[in-house]
Structure formats: structure tokens, C-alpha cells
Specification:
About 35% of the residues lie in helices and about 10% in strands. The protein is of the alpha/beta class. It has one domain: Rossmann fold (3-Layer(aba) Sandwich), CATH 3.40.50.620. The protein is globular and about 55 Å long.
Length: about 240
Amino acid sequence: MTDKGKSHREKAVVLSSGGLDSTTAMAVAKEEGYEIYSLSFHYGQRHAAELQAAEAVAKALGAKEHLVVCLDFAKIGGSALTDEMDVPKARSYGEMGHEIPITYVPARNTIFLAYALSWAEVLGATDIFIGVNAIDYSGYPDCRPEYIEAFEHMANLATRASTQGKAKTRIRAPLMHMTKAQIIQKGMALGVDYGMTRSCYDPSPEGMACGQCDSCLLRKRGFVEAGVSDPTIYVFGQ
């Protein structure tokens, strides 16, 4: 991957879970020539192994800094990712597209983007990248285009730089209208090693992907449709 398209190195905060989508979004930011500041969260998620992946991704893609913020969503609950609930397994793709699952973490992207906005203002960065997607996703309301547009509007009412007319914040969601297969193909074209990414909601104690949660199923289908071998080893097969 090469840095191109900019005469100087502008800064961008990139939200990174260590997963397939956020890693591809970071690769897009790198390709566009940004100096990358990777932001991840330890929020009490059962799939905290993703943080090791996020660190590896930040290093591989040349991030200037990788910051991990600690939150405690477990105190709030309401999600199978942070509470004592079973993660749904073997759901149909129809169910994924039309029902909001219990893996939805209430207001998570709003909180994550708020932290990214805060850090971006300190850094003097005007762009925030997030790997949300409105096609191959699990029905989360905070992954929709209208949500991203609304947050960007709010962001430009909220910061000193924007209200003083010095800079406008852009929330960049470059994968929004891409299928999982298209995202994988885009990443492959940018040289992404998906072997370092983690997507599972309910990994084994050894960190192996379960192969049956929504995230695993969407990932597996994406690789099949992209015609690319999935480097992930799953507990329940490929």
C-alpha cells in the first residue's frame, strides 16, 4: 500500500475493533494518505481477544499511535456481548437483516464516535473513519447512513474548532454501501492480511472463532463470495 492523493499528511482517527471491516477502513485511510491514529475500546466485551488483533493491525498498517480506552458496558448490560446472555448462533441471513439481535450494545457507536471526536479535536484531525456497513450486517441501528450523517451534523455543533469556523469534522464510512465480499476484495487489493483480524462474538477460551455467531457467518459467506480463502480457523469448521 502506498500513501497518495495528499500533498501533506493529514491526521485521521480510525475506530478499530481488530475485525475485518474496521481493518479495511483503516487500509482505506492509509491509501488516502492519512497519518493514522487507531482507537480501540476495552468495554467488557466477551470477545476481548479482538484487542490483540487491533494492536497487530495498527502496527501492520503503520498507525502513528494506537490508543485503547477502557469502559465498562457490563455495568449497563443489555447485550449478549457484555452481559450474561447467550450469543445467538446459526441465525439465517434473513434474520440477521431484519431483526436487531441481542448482540447489539446500546448506543455503542455513539459512545465510540464521541471518544473519537474528542481525540480528533486534540490531535487536530478532521476525519474519523469507522467501518460500519449497511448491507452485510446484523441489523444494528447505529450502522445506517442516516445515523452517520446525523452524528457528523452533531459533531460540527459540538467542537471548538467547528464552532469557530476553523475546521469541520467528517465521519468517514467508506464501506457503507459495500457487501462483505466487496469489502474483502477491496482489502485484498490494498494488501490487507486478514489472517491478523478477529471477527467472532463468542470465541473459545483459546481464542478460536466459534463459526456460528452472526459475525462468523457473515465473514465466512463474504470470503466465499469474494472467491478468497478465509484464513480463520473456526471451532465449527469452515
